[in-house]
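Margin note from the TA: students keep mixing up input and output lines. Inputs are the sequences; the output is the structure of the whole complex. Example:
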Amino acid sequence: MDMKVSKKKLGLKEKYQHMTRGLGWETTYQSMDEVFPYAKYEGIKIHDWDKWEDPFRLTMDAYWKYQAEKERKLYAIIDAYAQNNGHLSVTDARYINAIKLFLNGISPLEYMAHRGFAHAGRQFPGVGPRVACLMQSLDEIRHAQTQIHSLSNYNKYYNGFHEYRHMLERVWYLSVPRSFFDDAYTAGPFEFMVAIGFSFEYVLTNLLFVPFVSGAAYNGDMGTMTFGFSAQSDEARHMTLGLEVIKFILEQDPDNLPIVQQWIDKWTWRGYRVLTLVGMMMDYMLPKRIMSWKEAWEVYFEENGGALFKDLARYGIRPPKWLDQIEQDKDHISHQAWATFYNYAAACNFHTWIPTDDELDWLSQKYPNSFDKYYRPRLEHWREEAKKGNRFYNKTLPMLCQTCQIPMIFTEPGDPTQICYREVDYKDNKYHFCSDGCKEIFEHEPEKYIQAWLPVHQIYQGNCFNEGVDPTAEGFDPLAAVLDYYHLNFGRDNLDFDGSEDQKNFEAWRGMATKNT
Amino acid sequence: MHIDLRTVSIKPQRQTFDHIARRIGPDKAATRYQEGTLDVQATHNFHYRPTWAPEYEIFDASRSAIRMADWYAFKDPRQFYYGAYTLARAKQQETAESNFDFVEGRGLAETLPEELRDTVLKLLLPLRHVAWGGNMNGAFITAYGYGTALTQPCLFHSMDQLGIAQYITRVGLLLGDDVDVLDEAKTSWMEGEAWQGLRRYVEDSFVLKDPLELFVAQMVALDGLLYPLVYETIIDDVLASKGGTPIAMLTQFMTDWYAETRKWVDATVKTAAAESPENKALLEKWIAHWRDRAASALMPVAQIALGAQADALTSELVGQFNARLAKAGVTL
């Protein structure tokens, strides 16, 4: 019998290449342009897809094995948390509003990411990036579902969670995160990767995920904390993918640089605007604070992001535009946002409140340049009014920014007493913007942004009433009709935390769990 | 002895989310499959149209000629959401791993008759490219299909196909002397006469635009003939009887996968066909078309292992395919 010559041992990298990019081929019965029709229209030039460096090397069998192990642990904890009424161990019931914001505003984006990465994972002509994108698509549906499953238990006991899918497409403030993702999804596959893979997952993710997950950990919410921790190793893969995408595109052709730079400018600004909601959550909605929004921005963007952009400078990339404005804004935006939600608490599916005295002191200490001067007196005034029975609810509708869709609440750079307005005339219409950033983004692609489904405009156009409602009928109450359209239960989902059903129930249930009365 | 363990019991305000309750009734607890699937995809008030396909909304049912009053009429009988899916596959990969260990550890690959080993390499290895095509097609339906009930299992299918391509690659690396066998298989795939019909089929499927027609071309017709032919008939029956049982062990994942996945495919076809006579007629047209193309594309591939028997066995499989689809309400 012949002795078999022992086979050459394959290195990990080589083996992974056979397991992935060795699978693809240049099609001939159908042209590559027909098979990958969206690969060129954005103007990105790719000469050699084989130059792609796989950011991680995970074959499917290993993926199933690791992920199943994580799922097993995660669902065991979710089940135990539900069975033990873990929701009663959170710091106080105000905290639950932070996770309402998460389920309503963030979880649906995870689902959109899943579909978006499937799109990118089908459309790139290179096998390496396609595999990486599809794996991320699979991870993203995991994140959407683990979040829905974890928060499902809160929905059983608390208001504001019950119609998150319906409200996503209708409620005014939810058009902010939703339009952000619709914007990325409708861009070409390369822009999508720069928008979500790089700008969001790499540059800004620490400002989204860390505050919510650490917030959960700080506030006794083990259910939310656990899905966050469990998602962490997925996120690490997503971050390396985001970075590889940028480097790969930039290394392929010098003509790609200005296109990518414009996308980085745009998506950092778009992402930063969405993060206003997170900033507000950190400064106002967590009974046990982790750090202020301003501190988070300094650590996670100015320090970490600064290092990243230094690293990218060798490709000719400069830091995103408008950072000087963000630098000034960090003293203000969380307070401006909370004031807005406090105003519009009647049309919102989570509760707002005036911070307690020591919370106000914490804010004064964290924001020495702005809080006592501009924001504390207003909050104290509202508190006084509420005590007199005049809790202020704003019933008019705000003007929205055409790009980020946030009400025009932000102030002029350098003057926190003056609201910032920008406008553009385009094809017989006037469009309004909250900032130079949003204005410039519009001007670059007006045909896209004029399509925006702006909740306030839609209400005024009569598109936000249920079928059969007659706005000309006598005694017609537009706000009530819009809230019906939102499926918002008046008096349960909305209004001030003080006196809310959530507050009363939590107190009663916690009493049952800790006392013998 | 029964021990009555207690926790403080508080009455829930509701059993599940309202969009789930509207479908299953207000007083029922929802399953994780239901909460993770039903109505999860956005349907209304999209902000912008895709710059790459402005004729459509972001998610647009009109991408398919199949019409459904409710796209959540589709149900995955496996009830796969991500967690259930990965747990099921993790178990299968454990079996696959111990099968590979068994075959490798005992040097069973070396005991295969030379001719049989060559047949396996010739037949199986180019199929890694077919599986890769399956991965692309699953991704397409995930991206452009309508409703999570349909798109979610298509991503699982897509990743399964990638896994299958990788298992085939491992078989090649185990049986072959070198990685050259992969290159040779790719050359066959690109140039070998036996493979051109199948490659044309796969490439033609890449340019289909209707997600449901693609579902028919990939999940119904191609998978529906290829898996019974290659894994159930050739490997598990014909080659096993010639001393090829180790190969059957190495491809057990594919056999088990197909037995499980076809239940979902059948349920999907059945639901779409039962919706309307128009759907049924369209599905019949598509399935007959892609079945015939798949059967003739697979014929020369079958001949690699079956020689003169290929014709008769393939016709038999087409008969079984027709009977299977008849149960799903499609008359071929």
